[in-house]
Amino acid sequence: MKVIEIEGGNKLSGTIRVSGAKNATVALIPAAILTDEEATICNVPEITDTDALCDILKLLNVNVNRSTESLVINPKDMQNTCITEPYSKKLRASYYFMGALLGKYKRAEMYFPGGCSIGARPIDLHLKGFEALGAKVTNDKNKYIVEAEELKGANIYLDIASVGATINIMLAAVRAKGTTVIDNAAKEPEIVNVATFLNNMGANISGAGTSTIKIKGVDHLHKCFHEVIPDRIEAGTYIIIGALCGTTLKIDNVIPEHIDSLVSKLEEMGVKLEIGADYITVLERTNKLKSTNIKTAVYPGFPTDLQQPFTVLLTQADGKSKVTETIWENRFMHIPYLKELGADIEVKNQTATVIGPSDLKGSEVVATDLRAGAAMVAAALIASGKTNITNAEHILRGYEQIVEKLSNVGAKIRIKEI
Ligand code: UD1
User: Fold this and answer.
1) Are residues 203 and 251 in the same domain?
2) Which of the 8 DSSP states describes residue 33?
3) What is the mean pLDDT for each group of 10 consecutive residues in the chain (418 residues)?
4) pTM over 0.70
5) Cβ(259) – ligand 1 distance below 6 Å
């Protein structure tokens, strides 16, 4: 097991460069198999979720060449075999192979995906979307076979604006006959990035980034070159860390409009920011932080993935703050560990009430999931003394070189194996 050890209380300063977006990358890699030609994707983060998807590509006999930050995927010798449980279970985003394989071969065989335990995480909306396109879904325990004689465009209304279902239906519909319209589609920037990639390959998708996406099926997709957008959640995490430490910290390679909701909450709390075209600098702070309330929501609302790190910031604000989680029913697993570090937080139903400011003291904590792990790192950086974060594998799934990036700006952080 990997453990991240942090000696807290060091002032951070300098620049942290944000990597390519995990949640875009994990969809772009499966999307690349929709062509028979080569796809080059650059700004790919070196995280273990990328490794897990490349392993699935290799299982399918797809040629993958990886060099620093770029990935060349060539599916010309690909074989559509079953994605066995150990592969599917490694991460949530393995489910994008369902849509991509269905779109290309009219048949996908795989197991229920894995991922963080932050709620039930059903895939019913994905499957309903595939069925609307003409596919038959057979499910035996954890195994799914999705197949169709022909995929035909359809009008699909999503009961929930699900990121995964929106992308998966796009992947299945891109080579279907006729036009598919997804209503109440999710609007996250990662969806726009995936639609741009597919359009670069010759797809005909319009409306990505709005709640109605139109996909006109095409027969053929061709080679392309594509760049992953910067990771707004990684950027937000480091901006929160900057705000916690209170010294000047520049976060580079950011698309500021992707984190508008976070920026306005930080400004409301009294955090001073300098916002450039592609960077945000957290400026030195002498004032106290003001308390505030957040409620997670689909984009452009406050992202659920930043809720956990943001809660750490609220432990340092003056007075009572509330955090309401509306997307995932089990996303307060970090709270007992924040309390272990000295925070004053109570959870009732889907709302956490935080009373601050609290002095945090180093302790032994667990990264129960990816963003809970990021919250532990943020808390440990301002806690006095040493904190050991076990199950750090979760953090490495989504944060490229987190130890190096934080060390470079003055944190005392190391990773060890026990
Ligand atoms: C994606 C992100 C994740 C983020 C989440 C919400 C990836 C790989 N992961 O996850 O980091 O926290 O968006 O922004 O991009 N739902 C159903 N049925 C379905 C699908 C979803 O009921 O078939 C529900 C979920 O249980 C959840 C809500 O819809 O309550 C949103 O889920 P969704 O947007 O699909 O999240 P993911 O795509 O899994």
Assistant:
1) no
2) G
3) 97 97 98 97 96 97 93 97 95 95 97 80 94 96 95 98 98 98 98 98 98 97 97 98 95 98 98 98 95 98 98 98 94 96 97 98 97 98 98 96 98 96
4) yes
5) no
